[in-house]
Amino acid sequence: MANSPLRVASIGYAFMGKAHSQAWRNVASYFDVPPVEQxxxxxxxxxxxxxxxQKLGWLSTASDWREVIARDDIDIVxxxxxxxxxxxxxxxxxxAGKHVIVEKPLANSxxxxxxxxxxxEAAEARGQHAIVNFNYRRVPALVVAQRLIADGRIGTIRHVxxxxxxxxxxxxxxxxxxxxRKEDAGSGALGDLGSHVAxxxxxxxxxxxxxxxxxxxxxxxxxxxxxxxxxxILGSGGxxxxxxxxxxxxxxxxxxxxxxxxxxxxxxxxxxxxxxxxTLEIYGDRGAITFDLENLNExxxxxxxxxxxxxxxxxxxxxxxxxxxxxxxxxxxHIIGWEHSFTHQFAEFLxxxxxxxxxxxxxxxxxxxxxxxAAIEESASNSxxxxxxx
Amino acid sequence: MANSPLRVASIGYAFMGKAHSQAWRNVASYFDVPPVEQxxxxxxxxxxxxxxxQKLGWLSTASDWREVIARDDIDIVxxxxxxxxxxxxxxxxxxAGKHVIVEKPLANSxxxxxxxxxxxEAAEARGQHAIVNFNYRRVPALVVAQRLIADGRIGTIRHVxxxxxxxxxxxxxxxxxxxxRKEDAGSGALGDLGSHVAxxxxxxxxxxxxxxxxxxxxxxxxxxxxxxxxxxILGSGGxxxxxxxxxxxxxxxxxxxxxxxxxxxxxxxxxxxxxxxxTLEIYGDRGAITFDLENLNExxxxxxxxxxxxxxxxxxxxxxxxxxxxxxxxxxxHIIGWEHSFTHQFAEFLxxxxxxxxxxxxxxxxxxxxxxxAAIEESASNSxxxxxxx
Amino acid sequence: MANSPLRVASIGYAFMGKAHSQAWRNVASYFDVPPVEQxxxxxxxxxxxxxxxQKLGWLSTASDWREVIARDDIDIVxxxxxxxxxxxxxxxxxxAGKHVIVEKPLANSxxxxxxxxxxxEAAEARGQHAIVNFNYRRVPALVVAQRLIADGRIGTIRHVxxxxxxxxxxxxxxxxxxxxRKEDAGSGALGDLGSHVAxxxxxxxxxxxxxxxxxxxxxxxxxxxxxxxxxxILGSGGxxxxxxxxxxxxxxxxxxxxxxxxxxxxxxxxxxxxxxxxTLEIYGDRGAITFDLENLNExxxxxxxxxxxxxxxxxxxxxxxxxxxxxxxxxxxHIIGWEHSFTHQFAEFLxxxxxxxxxxxxxxxxxxxxxxxAAIEESASNSxxxxxxx
Amino acid sequence: MANSPLRVASIGYAFMGKAHSQAWRNVASYFDVPPVEQxxxxxxxxxxxxxxxQKLGWLSTASDWREVIARDDIDIVxxxxxxxxxxxxxxxxxxAGKHVIVEKPLANSxxxxxxxxxxxEAAEARGQHAIVNFNYRRVPALVVAQRLIADGRIGTIRHVxxxxxxxxxxxxxxxxxxxxRKEDAGSGALGDLGSHVAxxxxxxxxxxxxxxxxxxxxxxxxxxxxxxxxxxILGSGGxxxxxxxxxxxxxxxxxxxxxxxxxxxxxxxxxxxxxxxxTLEIYGDRGAITFDLENLNExxxxxxxxxxxxxxxxxxxxxxxxxxxxxxxxxxxHIIGWEHSFTHQFAEFLxxxxxxxxxxxxxxxxxxxxxxxAAIEESASNSxxxxxxx
Lengths: 390, 390, 390, 390
Prior knowledge:
- The structure is a homotetramer of 390-residue chains.
- The first copy, chain A, is α/β, with parallel strands linked by helices.
- Chain A folds into two domains: 6-136, Rossmann fold (3-Layer(aba) Sandwich), CATH 3.40.50.720; 138-388, Dihydrodipicolinate Reductase, domain 2 (2-Layer Sandwich), CATH 3.30.360.10.
- The first copy, chain A, contains ten helices and 17 strands.
- Chain A has helices at residues 15-30, 46-56, 65-70, 83-95, 110-125, 140-150, 182-185, 189-205, 340-355, 363-380, and strands spanning 6-11, 36-42, 60-62, 76-79, 99-103, 130-133, 157-165, 209-217, 222-224, 242-244, 250-257, 262-268, 277-284, 287-292, 298-303, 313-317, 387-388.
- In chain A, the strands form three sheets. Chain A has a nine-stranded mixed beta sheet. Chain A has a six-stranded parallel beta sheet with strand order 3-2-1-4-5-6, with helices on both faces.
- In chain A, helix 5 links the parallel strand 5 and strand 6 (130-133).
- In chain A, helix 4 (83-95) packs parallel to helix 5 (110-125).
- The model of chain A is unreliable at 228-235 (pLDDT under 50).
- Chains in contact: A-B, A-C, A-D, B-C, B-D, C-D.
- At the A-B interface, strand 7, strand 8, strand 11, strand 12 and strand 13 of A face strand 7, strand 8, strand 11, strand 12 and strand 13 of B.
């Protein structure tokens, strides 16, 4: 029994399903994790899911997630389905005794997130594990950043500047997509990108956002009807009648962290030239760090203890054997890619199951992020006034 | 008479006086400007002003600015004195028929700025000229940026991200300074750095800020008493009893430009590692630009017209003969320094006098900046609510 | 038969074996390649090879490469063993009718490389395929570079500047390793790093090195005896008696390309701070490109056709769907890692087998690289005089 | 007499004359130097020299350098004339008892440089001073580099990589210029750019080049006849009959420093996209530095003493009060330009006169550079063989 592998069922095989699959397929080749098996890939279209399963390394397929959850031989349910399904599937899986991974953001609303967190509390008492997949926590450079801060190397933080800039919606004539419908996606850049920003800011600093003033903007309010929910980021169709865009193209907020820092955040899908520009700047009274996801193997670190006249931002190429996770991969200087953060995340999840330690990022942390997003929406409806978070 | 030089009186010889002096001393060596003479340097301490005049190239000195303004042989009054003196000196000089240069920000309050703008309106009718010295408008890279936008190369602007980050107040035990007293400096980072940001954002985009939500923060609320108003940026003293800091260490705002863009701004003197980090990012639907004052000879330009697969931010080294102002200096690739922006500004001023064309940045533009700063202060007092600017 | 997978035997499971394994394990998840099976991993120590096989995804193991080559059910022999074994194993495999992949450099000497190329010529006539794994040809940014040059966008090339700088031998007290013994490794930085440089220069420019003047240097001539041939890059031992280092720590050359360009190259394992710094600069009369392997998702491109005043090196983030190979991975801006170049290489190899097209990099190209390395050695023995290559 | 200013005569008012003039005009405004006076500007065309003198701040003009040198009221002779005049003018000025500044390179040949060094030896015994103006020694970032090396922070140097890349000759149809005629310019990129590289490498490392293997290349061997010796870098004419280019477009060398390091150098005027790209990389066993003149306010420093996992190249913005020379200019982070290096150089020269200390860079150092250039030419004529320098 101890040697039988943890059997995974994954729901969804679009962009995120593909990323999760690669992590399951490779995690044991690099990390000493409990044995794990890609047992079943779940999707509604049998032919498509079979083709995906073969390509992505899954042993079998299924079309009804409820049946899969009911099976005894599944240990982990990995949810890559659209946000509107997260709460229902995750709660059912937890109630069925499964460990659960939910792709971020945790849910489409605070209410859903609260129910999920409650369901997990009950499950945790039964020895189950669950995480929301804020994978950027596992980018080695950001782990180094988090440790430097935890070790006091940055000192008292005064400023956090965070942005997540993409440009795939720049073209006003681009087609409609499920990601631009509120009922499917919950929100736009706010949930998709803002959730990453809110989580990484709080995680790396070790502080909570206490209050926030923010706003939302939809630059392009209608687009030609396109796909009806397929896999690509942006629907390929277009040319149909105009359909209203019901989510934000951009969102922002200025808040206060529990340690007193000012945090300024901005996310958008309309910053031409920025492809995947999650940037983070943290300034304390002893040091500073900056990071850019487009260059994720690097961390810039300014150490205020360096001798006068010799200070400067130091480009740490976070690819050395003694950097977190990196020793498992290649020799110094051989960079890793974006998807490796998923592999690290899943290794951590498997270790926490093996060791019966708390799994993170927890649903409670996912709920906290949801509250930040909701506060930005509320502030946006109140002329930018600060909203307190409890 | 046509050949007699324009005679300048400059008030103040600290940091800004030194920068202005270099521009007067050198402008005619590089640009075809009307003859100009460094006639008199004005300061209250006779010995110090004499020493400064000799070092900085002034032909004579005086201690009473009123007497100097009253003289017939002075054509231009150049005000580098602290902000609290701007309105009084500038209005008196305008009334005495002089051309006037006021160091930025124009004034310590909207009310002062309004009076100055009114005084200039009357003077303009008499053929006088006046500017507020937002010198960064004359950084060649920012001129290129402004022209690209004016030519439609950036398209409809969606996002402007601007920051001015310095770190000289990071140390909490650093001494008090006149710059940290509201009665002397008007405000802290807001007026000193925020005025540059507000001006450059509006100037480069060619748009006005219509509304803004913002805030202020003083991280270190008292400091050991230091100097009593000397020349250095930070007093050298310290060690005395604690004195309250009455200005902001940091300020920020998120606003809307007249063309519909979202503009996010942040200024601080506590971003460790940033020495003079005025950064600007502008994203449109056809192109994007970024700029960093610590690297002021460069402009990054993303041209959305470049072929697919070949797009990227292009580092334009703005040091070529056909770049603005640059042909007057050195061959391609020989970079210029921060102070050269003053030389360009003064050349522009002298040309506008010679050609009887409007001088810019005008007092009206300086007043508009002042209104932005006041709106941030008002928003800060109103829980971050948006304040409309007329 | 058409549907039966190509069955691979891989010899070696250290650094390179691990990299090759990941490519075999994942190539079919991203690219439409013929079915392939990780059939057998070959190594001399049964326990170690079994453990490696399980981790890296191999279905079985073997300890004698001759037996494996003799098997009918093996289609591809993938040689990751030390350089001294390349010729013997590759020639045997080719004679046994297998397709062959040889890790770079092709051999430890020109003579070996010649025999291998001859063996392949005979095998090619029988429909077999073989490559030497110069994987950097498959880095997307370098494919873009190669295409820009082939399309005439760089124009007539005048200068190529190439370097491969690492620092893992900087410490003079570091232990001896098989990589520092001539009988095992053939040469030092010259073969290990210089082979990459010589290949990528010739491949990207599409030109051959016609003549070269060069040199070699061993900075640390003896080191404490360490490992006896294990897997790590640098032996972990040390502390033993001093053993002579019989290979070069650094090598360099200045040559002439067939198109008339000057090419300057330098490789070293002693450039402190450079972890995996393969850099390439190519200057033509119409454009220029630069590249750095530590940042392998980026290509810098200077287009001489850009308007005057708007020219500059453009940072192309080579992560877009229409960039080579990249569409198979993640959305725009999601960077890939170093190992992905192996996946691309193996996909190309499988495609060439499927389509019966020539496989590259060919043994002939590997031989040409070997001749460049030999010419540098010869020049080094002749006071730096130019050596002509036929 | 002690208070009477040092009176300067400057010969030449093209690019270099303009740069020297600015230094004379401004040096006393920033540095505590002995009083200095821009006494006379010397040039052959009376109208042109008068116009230049007025623009550049000279009190008078003259057309015959011999007469000026004969005058009693001239203390310093500053030679910005073409290289072919250096030896004659400098020797005459030294014999006339003047202090002398010679623009680099010291001469057009080793023989001339030897005579100049000999003339200075005699003059030095009489208390005179002379320098060759290798102004990059006075770039603050390079002073920091030189000090780090002198302090042992880089350790034993293994590799020096230096290049000076420009692109103004890229266009094959560009016109002929005096700079491309051997009888006027002595050599091409070799003397113009290579002299800077040879000097800065030897100065910053504190080591001499002992032997060198090198080469020269003229890519464009004839150009349309253009100017007959005017001021611009490149003649404006063109369109005339083709005239042979008799100097090199590019030069290179690989040498050995006295401390055992390998130094690789390359200079060219045909690296499209590089405007003024003097780059320097120095790798030792304790640290490393890199520098780029296009970004001259920055130094990159890798400190091998930094903790494992926190190492990286540190961007030192060399604009702080405690950096060399910088305190005299502006507050932290306010960058200086290319021409400031001349101001620093002249301040150093004036201080050495005041203090009767040796002036540097000395003629002996200029001669040593000349020998390096001659060795490259000799090696180029001997198939790249190493040439020993005594």
